[in-house]
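Same chain as my last thread, 154 residues:
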Amino acid sequence: MKSQVPTLAQYGYRVIAPDQRGYSPGARPEAVAAYATSELVKDVLGIADAVGFERFHLVGRDWGASVAWATAIAAPDRLLTLTPISVPHPDAFATVLSDPTSCQPKASSYFGLFTSPTVEQTLLANNAAFLRGSYAGLPSETVAEYVKSSVDPR
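reply #2:
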């Protein structure tokens, strides 16, 4: 997403591209409940309020797309547009996840890892090998930045 920011700004958009809770040092609450979708939606709306956006365009990818959908459901009057990338509407997603002939349950199996109590140990073991592997295809400096932010103290 960060690579799109300059282009969007060039076309007159004011762009805010924050990391979600847990992705940056200093934004890692200890309580599991602090990561509830409702809390992440409050973060989106709080950021919009803090920068003076009564209504705004919202883009989210992967986990961010799930939060974007939840924001659209919770506060549809606040959004000018919604652009969820790689996550379909929650009802469509639920339908395909319950389809035994679909490949989507396997493709989404990593959700279980991200919600397990051992996710941190799994992602960071062996010099963050699993985490580094999940960023395959990205430039090495980008991977290094993501890994560094993941291993920095809370």
